[in-house]
Amino acid sequence: MNDPIIAIDGVKKTFDGGFHALKQVDLHIQRGEIFALLGPNGAGKTTLISIVCGLVSASEGRVTVDGFDNVSDYRKARERIGLVPQELTNEAFETVWNTVTFSRGLFGKPPNPGHIEKVLKALSLWEKRHNRLMTLSGGMKRRVLIAKALSHEPRVLFLDEPTAGVDVELRRDMWNVVRRLRDDGVTIILTTHYIEEAEEMADRIGVINHGEIVLVEEKHALMKKLGSKQLTLQLHRPLAAIPNALGAYDLTLAAEGSELVYTYDGRQVPEGPGISTLLNALNAEGISYKDLHTRQSSLEDIFVDLVKERA
Ligand SMILES: Nc1ncnc2c1ncn2[C@@H]1O[C@H](COP(=O)(O)OP(=O)(O)OP(=O)(O)O)[C@@H](O)[C@H]1O
Hints:
- The chain contains ten helices and 14 strands.
- The protein has helices at residues 45-52, 74-79, 96-106, 113-122, 138-150, 168-183, 195-201, 219-226, 273-284, 299-309; strands at residues 6-14, 20-29, 34-38, 60-65, 68-69, 81-84, 156-160, 187-192, 204-209, 212-218, 228-235, 251-254, 259-265, 289-296.
- The chain has a six-stranded mixed β-sheet, with helices on both faces.
- The chain starts with 5 loop residues before the first strand and ends with a helix.
- Bound molecules: adenosine-5'-triphosphate.
């Protein structure tokens, strides 16, 4: 892959006390993509983000942001990143405008009221710019966190659990905000527990478990897998091999040849021609079955399987 905006190579993290939070992480994030990092509690998501952002140091390995090493070129790497943390830690008595303007100053960037205005308008906070943070709703406070993270015009935005605990309507609003940012050329990396969120938002999905990336795939490729269904036939007599005459079907044998598994595109009607022609073909081959059932895989199944395998 060429010229990633973030390159994480051979990163490991062992905390004091010997806990291996990240075992070996290699991950490249492409410019302009929305990347969703999925993983159960304690998988290492926040640790990984914290390392990329320079808040936690890696025990081994290297991270570059837009080509800048995040240790030897810390400032350049860090100013390219916006981080929206999980927790709401806002200054209650400050106004929206001052908080966001101050955040920009922390990065040593000269004032740019025009940029702050644009950010506040994009996040529907413009009308509230003179409000103190304590007078905002929970959803607006979350928007302020995003505004702060965008105040210094970062090229990459990390969103750690952006919609944890927010209602459905606000979640949809946040998704729209994230899409608009991506349209403006910002690369987005979000961590989430919500599989639906990853399905809805991401260009690519990564799954992390026990400090290891166990899957990285284009969402569309994953969705194709998700769209697939399986028909399992329990045969009367086990087969040693799949007959050549059935070579046109995506078939595998399971349970020592006593089950024939047919994988097909679940977006067809299940009883459609795919299955009936297969059943006719089996009949012609003299293969009989005593039972059959279908199942559809979902991202949730894939996720649960991956996480279970490594448990
Ligand atoms: N400072 C620390 N010292 C020791 N262990 C830590 C420290 N910070 C995190 N850990 C451990 O590292 C593991 C990964 O934690 P991390 O916060 O990265 O998980 P996560 O995937 O973000 O989880 P969640 O979804 O719950 O936010 C956990 O087992 C956690 O207890």
